[in-house]
Write a structure and sequence with these properties.
Radius of gyration: 19 Å
Low-confidence stretches: none
Shape: globular
Number of domains: 1
Number of strands: 9
Order of helices and strands: HEHHEHEEHHEHEEHEEHH
Oligomer: single chain
Mean pLDDT: 95
Length: 265
Amino acid sequence: MSEPAAFPTTVATPEGIVGQLRALGVMPGDVLLVHASLRSVGPVAGGAAALIGALQEAVGRSGTVAMPSWTGDDDRVFDPATTPSAPDLGALARLFWQSEGVQRSDHPFAFAAAGRHAREIVRGPLPLPPHGPDSPVGRIHALDGQVLLLGVGHDANTTLHLAEVMAGVPYGVPGYCTVAGAGHVVRVRYRENDHCCQRFALADEWLRESGRQREGPVGQAHARLMRARHLVEAAMTALADDPLVFLHPPSADCEECDAARRSIG
């Protein structure tokens, strides 16, 4: 018996990716914060490096591309030149911070950026809390940047943690990171508005209702694009009504959200 015919795999071109990004609303001069799943995008001619090039071409010479680049290893002293990014950030983020012309933060809650505003985004000392206004994600918000969710949902959207900080949510779980001091290593402890992040998916409803989220294909991925300020505004409105809106109820038996609830008070 003959083998069934295989379906051909569509390989996206960098030019096609740029066209899809333009159709989505990415414009020259944009500050673009990218959270991405390379697997969801599918094959691109030239590989992951070509996808990064397409993102940079879409924002042009006057634009900036940024991606999360934190380590996820609380016990390791962070070195921006060698410390790997956290595995859950994905292969695209890992390749991006290692690419020529990309700048990276000097602290464990790092972001990487390339373009006009790269140094402004990644500069500065360790931000505490990690995703407050004086962090890279806070600076992208201040620059009126856009957030691109490329094959991922809002559960990967760090800008919603910024909204929590700005809204003054009552929960915060303890954490620590390790940094190099003057000739010695220091463990820095902090309190972070952390939880499972699954209910960040509520942002889809809020932004769709107001027409402030554009959606469409990029490669084989479903992409979402929104202004960081619109996202923060929508989240802060919801948090003003219910400061615990992002936490699962106790009946859901979510360990991370339960820990956040226990931190209150």
